[in-house]
Amino acid sequence: MSRQRKTGLVGNRFGLFGLVVVAMIALYGAARISQPEVPEWTPPPVLTKVAVESVRTVCPDLFQGRTAVLTPAGAGTGNGRAEIRGIGQKTPLAVVESPGRMWVKDLKGLVPALTVSATGVMASGLEVGQLSRVVTGVERGLAGLRCIEPGTSTWFVGPGPSAADVTLHLTNADTVPAMVGFAVYSGEGPVLTESTQGMTVEPGKSRIVRLRDLAPSADAAAVQVSTTSGRIAAAARVAYPGDKGVDWIPPAVEPNTTVIVPAVPKGGGLRRLYVTAPGDKDTVVRIKVVTSDSMYTPKGHERIDVPAGSTVVTDLTTALAGQAGALQLSADVPIVAGMMSTGTGAKQDVAFSAASPSIDLGSVTLGNRGPSRLVLSAPLTNAKVSVQVIPARGAPLPAKEVEVPVHRTVQVDIPAPRGSEGAYAIVVNPVRDSGPVYGGRVLEERTPEGQLITIQPLAMARTWALVPQVVDTMIAAIPPAQIGR
Questions:
Q1: What is the CA 49 to chain-centroid distance, rounded?
Q2: CA–CA dist 169, 421 (Å, integer)
Q3: Dihedral angle at the C-alpha atoms of 324, 254, 379, 309, nearest 10 degrees?
Q4: Each residue of 1-23: pLDDT tens digit?
Q5: DSSP H or E run through 165
Q6: Among 300, 233, 313, CA closest to 274
Q7: Could you tell me how far CA 3 lies from the centroid of its own chain?
Q8: Tens digit of pLDDT for each residue in 314-348?
Q9: From its phi and psi, is residue 316 left (phi > 0), alpha (psi between -120 and 50) or beta?
Q10: Residue 82 CB-half CA count within 13 A
């Protein structure tokens, strides 16, 4: 082959290579220009406080009880409406359209359960409570309950069927069936029976399940009521035999490694702590008591060993020595906890508290009669709240501020206001920059046979919801690394 021909072939090869390189650069540039720019990751947006616009609550059993409904004035704006009706009924028993106006009625024997549905300005802060008082017959005691919103999971911790008659009240206030299941944890461990597998509660219907049908021999138990479809309003009622007391067990917060059990009342009577470790690991629970004097570890109860999947009962009567306060419980695995207190006298009554959240957005309690008191605790840092009483009739009383020092408990006595007609609301709101506050309302009544008592832990008011700001970005649905692929 001639030298000239070889030179031409080499030149052609380099020229072809150059064209390929140019083409690749052009393609890459076009792709780079057309590819969407990947936005940088930013921290989650700050939550915004907005008024609640729709609420539905259920009062599960109106046995010898009185129901109160109130939306405090000043939260939402515009129009609204609260409809009060018996479960499954189409026609309301009453309609309330004005915030600040309390509706109170004794509905004994009229309806088995009650629903209250509110929209607009009537939803923002809606509170519904019931209270029954029985001093004759088979049962005896005060029994108070904050009427409950339907949900998919509810925890109760307290005595078992070998100690008392415990009934679960299940109400479906929605328009679709609810498939309900039960997880029961006794002192001997998880209880698995055919009854715990679940049931269907049809729309507009209520069912009562006895705990003895789920766990016949348990002395103490934790029960999780959950749904695989639909929602259920679940409540637990305890009646001790021989008219030794009756009350509702308040729902406990979901299992966590640190929980606060508030509103331990002062005075005599028994104080029993129930702790459950629902997981598959044993744990050691550490206790601290928050009283008016100090925060301390009770002598002889520095730790509680809780086997996996079981409930342990600890008598803290001597350790608390009649002091009011709260319990801070810490463990290495998530736990659930509750507390039982009894009154004094020849015939006792019972009251229950449960692990509860702090009232960061305020709290409202209804179903108050006669004098009552708040038990407020600040286990983490200094706190300050405003407390206001709203009578059933007449103008709200002036609010007063209450300071709760860190690691302390403060009691606030609430006299029954004039013109309350035996019913009033207590509104508790943290003051700006206040630390977390935990607490509860205690009602007591002296009778010749013995003290009546009921406790309602302070729950977060339904006034506000915390929602994230809406951001125009694909990161909410697609990870940044995937955008443009």
A1: 19
A2: 29
A3: 80
A4: 444 444 444 444 444 445 444 45
A5: strand 165-172
A6: 313
A7: 92
A8: 999 999 999 999 999 999 999 999 999 999 888 88
A9: alpha
A10: 29
